[in-house]
Structure formats: C-alpha cells, structure tokens
C-alpha cells in the first residue's frame, strides 16, 4: 500500500497544560531533524496531533525513524482520498484487503474536523460499515478490541484512511527538560542511563575520561561508538574526552590503596562539574547502580558527592543488573559494551577498595595533592567531538572542536 500521510499522536504532552505548545514545538523540531534525509516531507504540527505529508517519500523509512523520536505515543500511516464517497469506498476495500485477513473482526472509527461534509461521524461509520459487511462477508463487526480498526479522518482538504497503529518511543521530546552531562564509561550501565535521560527529555553531552597509554585507542573508539548508538534518538551528541592519565598516576603514587577509587572518582566528579558549568548544563547523570560495586555503595556516594553541589541523577540506581542488560540489549549497546577494552575505571583498580570510605579521610588524602593544577591541566587537554549517527561515525571523521566554549 502506498501511504500518503502519517498521523502522529503525542504522548505525555497531553498533560502539559499551558506549556503544551512549547513541547509540541520541540517535538516538531526533533522530528524535522530526525527526518532530514526526506526533503519532500511536509510536517504540520497541531494541538492534538502532528501530520506528516509524505509527498512520495518512502513511508517505511520515515516510520523507522519516527519510532526513535521521544515524545511520540503512536502513529498511523494513512491513505489520502478525495472527498468523494465512491472513491472512498474503493480505497477502503483496497486497504482492508491488504490489512484485514479473512475472518478478522473490525470496527470503523471516524473523526470529522470538516463539519461541512455531507456525512457526520455516525453517518460515515454506518456507511463504511455497511460497505464492508456487504463486500467482505468474511469480516465480523466487533466494537470492543477488534482485530482491525479502520480509522477515518474527514479533513477540509481530503479524507484519510488508516488501519495500522505503531507504538512510538514514548517519553518527552529531547531538550524539553534541559541539558545535562553524562559520565560515560565503556561499560553496560552508563549508555542505558544516557538512553533513559534522553527519554525524559534531557539533552545530554557525554563526558568520557581516558588515560593513554594505559587505555587504548580502541577503548576511546568504543566509547564514541556507544555514543553513536544513542544518536538516532536525538540527531547528534557532543562527546567530550577528558585526559585523565596524570591524575590517575598522581593518585596512585600519593593515596593509600583502599582510597584510590574514591579519590579518582572525586576528581572525575569535579571535572564533570566544571564541564557542566562551562557547557551550561543543569545536572550530571551517571550509570551508578546502588551496591553494584565498591564505589557505588551509599557510603561511597557520600564521600564522592562531597565535591559538588550540582544535582547528580542516576537513572539505573535501583535497577538490578539483569534489568539494565535487558535495556542495553533493546537499544543495541550491550554487545559493544562487553567488548574487552580497558577503560580508566578499571585500570589501577585496587584489589580491596573501601566499600565504606570515610569522608574526612578522603578529604585528608586528597589535600596532599595539587588538586587545582591537576584539574586545570585536564581541562586544558579536553577535545569535543560531535557524533551524528552510527553510520557516519563508522565511515567518516567527526568534527573536532578544539576549544571548550
């Protein structure tokens, strides 16, 4: 079936009251960005739904992209028919032949915005219902939970028919909840946290710590590829790589073994805080899950969080590992995450890290180090890469921004 239009229904936007128009505007922008490869489209956002006129563009390709845009509850590919009931009948029979197998149950649901049309809502339902009962005796009318719902929308310019409803990604339009940075490792958890942040409308930028020569170029490429896995949901993501070698070597040389992880994490969080402020972000996201490793006990979080007052949001904090893995598999980051490239979170890891580090001791051990100098040199070495999509990342060089703001 050659479809002419896609009707997009909003998700949580229906609860936004006076802010609804701003959310719809943001969603319209995100959809336009996601569909930039289809220049023939006409996108018309309205208060109750958004219409995408295909104008000959590939409907399946457009629908594949729409499924990755947050803020969409569902959408329906539709056929456009002139407001002539003879032509409507022909197209109804053609559409139902393709989408309603023999023996299916059905109902007709009409929405009429053009009140000048000759048939009202009930009239359209009865007219088309009678047609199908006569021409398709193998079908049975069923008003509750039918196999096929034939949706008829009578608009000023034409009548639109649809029988398919495809679930969207849900959530809120990316950017509608503000901007944050995400501390991205090479593991399973942080990409899932990034996905969940995007789903709640947060525009994220990735902060990744790397420690050459202890971490390889493969490990850095893996982190960029994980970022690329999330770009279809937003269009592009900034990847901020922070050199961490000097800090890790200094901490290893000057801090007791049990506190190595705690002090390293305090430095990471300080740097994330500094980057967030420079990038005008409102929060720091990470992939910590309570109790999963030594640095993620509540006591460790207290000792590490001490260095910032910025909100730290942990989307996977109360999920167990199997739940996190399930999401990672769904968003296609799991196989990449388990590739065995060391990241800076695993090198220099002590065999017996403190699970209940003392805050005063953490401050004391850290005070012996050149905190300001170490932080400034790391900030001076930052590079920012804009990653646009998985395919572009694999086949083309990224744009590298040499200055942080």
From TrEMBL:
UniProt xrefs under HAMAP family: ThiI
GO molecular function: ATP binding; CCA tRNA nucleotidyltransferase activity; tRNA binding; tRNA-uracil-4 sulfurtransferase activity
Protein name (Swiss-Prot/TrEMBL): Probable tRNA sulfurtransferase
Pathway note: Cofactor biosynthesis; thiamine diphosphate biosynthesis
Encoding gene, per UniProt annotation: thiI
EC number: 2.8.1.4
Annotated ATP binding sites: 183-184, 208-209, 265, 287, 296
Coiled coil: none
GO biological process, one term: thiamine diphosphate biosynthetic process
Function summary: Catalyzes the ATP-dependent transfer of a sulfur to tRNA to produce 4-thiouridine in position 8 of tRNAs, which functions as a near-UV photosensor. Also catalyzes the transfer of sulfur to the sulfur carrier protein ThiS, forming ThiS-thiocarboxylate. This is a step in the synthesis of thiazole, in the thiamine biosynthesis pathway. The sulfur is donated as persulfide by IscS.
Predominant cellular place of this UniProt entry's protein: cytoplasm
SMART domains cross-referenced by the UniProt entry: THUMP (SM00981)
Species name: Lacticaseibacillus manihotivorans DSM 13343 = JCM 12514
Enzyme class, broadest EC rank: transferase
Catalytic reaction equation(s): [ThiS sulfur-carrier protein]-C-terminal Gly-Gly-AMP + S-sulfanyl-L-cysteinyl-[cysteine desulfurase] + AH2 = [ThiS sulfur-carrier protein]-C-terminal-Gly-aminoethanethioate + L-cysteinyl-[cysteine desulfurase] + A + AMP + 2 H(+); [ThiI sulfur-carrier protein]-S-sulfanyl-L-cysteine + a uridine in tRNA + 2 reduced [2Fe-2S]-[ferredoxin] + ATP + H(+) = [ThiI sulfur-carrier protein]-L-cysteine + a 4-thiouridine in tRNA + 2 oxidized [2Fe-2S]-[ferredoxin] + AMP + diphosphate
UniProtKB keywords: ATP-binding, Cytoplasm, Nucleotide-binding, RNA-binding, Thiamine biosynthesis, Transferase, tRNA-binding
GO cellular component, one term: cytosol
Similarity comment text for this entry: Belongs to the ThiI family.
Localisation per UniProt entry: Cytoplasm
This protein's record includes keyword Nucleotide-binding: yes
Domain (THUMP) ranges: 60-165
Keyword Ubl conjugation belongs to the record: no
């Amino acid at each position: 079936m050659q479809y002419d239009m896609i009707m997009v229904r909003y998700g949580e936007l229906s609860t936004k009251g006076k802010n609804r128009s701003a959310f719809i505007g943001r969603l319209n922008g995100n959809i336009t960005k996601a569909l930039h490869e289809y220049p023939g489209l006409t996108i018309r956002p309205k208060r109750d739904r958004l219409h995408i006129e295909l104008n000959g563009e590939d409907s399946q390709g457009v629908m594949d992209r729409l499924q990755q845009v947050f803020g969409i509850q569902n959408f329906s590919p539709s056929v456009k028919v002139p407001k002539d009931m003879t032509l409507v009948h022909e197209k109804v029979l053609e559409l139902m032949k393709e989408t309603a197998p023999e023996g299916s149950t059905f109902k007709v649901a009409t929405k009429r915005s053009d009140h000048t049309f000759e048939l009202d809502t009930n009239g359209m339902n009865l007219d088309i219902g009678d047609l199908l009962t006569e021409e398709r005796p193998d079908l049975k009318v069923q008003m509750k939970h039918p196999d096929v719902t034939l949706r008829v929308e009578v608009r000023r310019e034409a009548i639109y028919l649809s029988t398919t409803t495809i679930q969207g990604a849900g959530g809120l339009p990316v950017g509608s909840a503000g901007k944050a940075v995400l501390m991205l490792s090479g593991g399973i958890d942080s990409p899932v946290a990034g996905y969940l942040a995007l789903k709640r409308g947060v525009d994220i930028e990735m902060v990744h710590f790397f420690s050459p020569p202890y971490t390889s170029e493969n490990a850095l490429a893996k982190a960029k590829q994980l970022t690329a896995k999330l770009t279809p949901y937003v269009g592009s993501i900034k990847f901020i790589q922070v050199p961490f070698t000097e800090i890790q070597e200094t901490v290893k040389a000057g801090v007791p073994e049990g506190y190595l992880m705690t002090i390293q994490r305090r430095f990471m969080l300080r740097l994330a805080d500094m980057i967030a402020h420079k990038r005008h972000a409102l929060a720091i996201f990470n992939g910590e899950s309570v109790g999963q490793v030594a640095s993620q006990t509540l006591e460790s979080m207290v000792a590490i969080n001490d260095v910032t007052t910025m909100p730290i949001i942990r989307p996977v904090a109360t999920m167990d590992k199997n739940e996190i893995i399930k999401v990672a598999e769904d968003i296609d980051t799991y196989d990449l995450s388990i590739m065995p490239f060391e990241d800076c979170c695993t090198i220099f890891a002590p065999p017996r890290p403190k699970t209940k580090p003392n805050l005063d001791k953490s401050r004391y051990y850290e005070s012996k180090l050149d905190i300001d100098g170490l932080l400034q040199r790391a900030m001076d070495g930052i590079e920012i890469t804009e990653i646009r999509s998985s395919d572009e990342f694999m086949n083309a060089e990224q744009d590298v921004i040499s200055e942080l703001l």
